[in-house]
Design goal:
The structure holds two protein chains of two kinds. Chain A is of the alpha/beta class. Helix content of chain A is 36%, strand content 22%. Chain B is globular, with a radius of gyration of 16 Å. The chains are: A alpha/beta, B alpha/beta.
Chain lengths: 258, 209
């Protein structure tokens, strides 16, 4: 039976982890490579880097970082942030990323997703959707771009369907309402997208407790749970999350002793 | 470990970075190449797979494909990964009319769209993520978890080729072995410690063959 995946996400800027990772014994809390190694050794099923580097010149540091991570970490690596054109996708894949996550560029030019899926395979192309509830309406969400600053007006469910039809291999779904709140995933949003498409959905935004991860996978129906701060703050290890999920009847790959 | 030189077949279809790195981590002297002479001089041959069957079949229609066939015929150890497993068969539903290497009789089929798990929930295609195998073969570990990412799977005509199965709606063939050839649908290079052990077993003695 296919396991639900647990994916720590690291926000990276100019080659460094933005918020730092609170691991006991970590030499350099700001080094994404060392953090990724720790997470994979601790049972993470995949690692995601979200690059928020503003300047184009500093993108080189990202490629170097991806290369160094892929050299030492033997679980899949997804990299997103600032992916605008074919060259960005190709450079990241050649640096060693297994999947590239695309957000604003998909909205600007939906055919880009079709082209990239044809060129590199659906398995390499993740469409990231930042969704926010429409005030005054029940269970309607629209898609935001540019780091959540711009409302596109696109219906999030319809957009997810379209991206799946265009060949995306996976949807990374972030609730803008919940992101950073620690109130748990937006379960209705997650469930609505999961039920609408036949490709895997990674839930993101809002995890604060072990129960939240369980809800996202069991109630929300997500195929994978992405989380950042609960891991970085040292509140929970990936192994603890997995033990909790196993105790609650969710199929996950058990952490392996290092 | 006396792994010797490991040649990794580069069909020019994508990034083989992680495969090369995984073999280097295992202590092998790994070399990516599309040169038949280089491939045929190695001690072990690995054919990873990314991309689509059609492009893979095109790339194998020339001298690289001949080199791989010669290699397999020579009795030296071969490891096929993902498309490098599928390419061993005659054809694939992914690219009707395209010929695989035809080392073994059989085809490659797509997961059907109405796959359901034991509780009746619809299963996603591609099959992406960690799943378990049932195997009695020495290179693999029974009940171990490996990373999969694929929409197609091999259906060998000779069922005795199958040395591992994995459940996704129904059991499918997740690894085969015959003489000097082993191949798996999952990615050892992405399967953390469990995958590293598969590579170590492949690089180790050839008592598995």
């Amino acid at each position: 039976m296919l396991a639900k995946r647990i994916i720590p996400c690291l926000d990276v800027k100019d080659g460094r982890v933005v918020k730092g990772v609170n691991f006991v014994g970590l030499r350099d809390a700001g080094d994404p490579v060392e953090s990724a190694q720790r997470y994979s050794a601790g049972g993470a099923d995949e690692i995601t880097f979200l690059d928020i580097t503003a300047s184009h010149e500093n993108r080189r540091t990202l490629f170097d970082l991806v290369d160094r991570t892929a050299t030492t970490v033997a679980v899949p690596l997804t990299v997103g942030g600032g992916v605008r054109e074919r060259r960005d996708v190709s450079e990241l894949l050649h640096a060693g990323a297994d999947k590239v996550s695309i957000n604003s560029a998909a909205v600007a030019n939906p055919i880009f997703i079709k082209d990239m899926a044809e060129a590199y395979g659906a398995q390499a192309i993740v469409v990231a959707i930042d969704a926010k509830r429409v005030p005054g309406e029940t269970d309607t969400w629209t898609v935001y771009t540019h780091g959540g600053r711009r409302d596109t007006g696109l219906d999030a469910i319809a957009w997810a369907k379209r991206m799946a039809d265009y060949g995306a291999g996976e949807i990374l779904l972030t609730s803008m309402d919940r992101d950073g709140t620690r109130d748990g995933y937006d379960l209705l949003l997650t469930r609505a997208v999961v039920d609408a498409i036949s490709i895997p959905v990674v839930a993101s935004g809002g995890v604060g407790t072990l129960a939240h991860v369980h809800e996202g996978l069991a109630t929300g129906g997500a195929d994978a749970a992405l989380a950042a701060s609960i891991f970085h703050d040292g509140h929970y290890t990936v192994a603890e999350v997995k033990e909790y999920l196993l105790d609650h009847g969710v199929c996950v790959r058990p952490p392996e002793p290092d | 470990m006396t792994a010797g030189r490991v040649a990794i077949v580069d069909l020019g279809l994508g990034n083989l970075h992680s495969v090369t790195k995984a073999f280097e981590r295992a202590g092998a002297n790994a070399e990516l190449s599309s040169d038949p002479d280089v491939l045929l001089r190695a001690d072990r041959l690995v054919m990873p797979g990314q991309g689509a069957f059609k492009e893979c079949a095109h790339a194998l229609a020339g001298e690289i494909g001949e080199a791989v066939k010669t290699w397999i015929g020579s009795g030296r150890p071969y490891l096929g990964i993902c498309l490098g497993m599928q390419a061993l068969f005659e054809s694939s539903e992914e690219a009707p009319g395209q010929k695989g290497l035809g080392i073994f009789p059989g085809t490659v089929k797509r997961f059907t769209r109405d796959l359901r798990d034991a509780e009746g929930r619809r299963l996603k295609v591609p099959h992406i993520g960690w799943n378990q195998i049932e195997s009695t073969h020495a290179v693999f570990e029974n009940a171990e978890w490996y990373y999969f990412v694929h929409s197609y799977y091999c259906v060998p005509a000779d069922e005795t080729l199958v040395v591992a199965t994995t459940d996704y709606g129904a059991p499918f063939c997740s690894a085969i072995a015959r003489d000097n050839v082993i191949a798996c649908q999952f990615h050892p290079e992405k399967s953390q410690h469990a995958g590293a052990r598969v590579i170590a077993h492949f690089l180790g003695d050839v008592s598995w063959s």
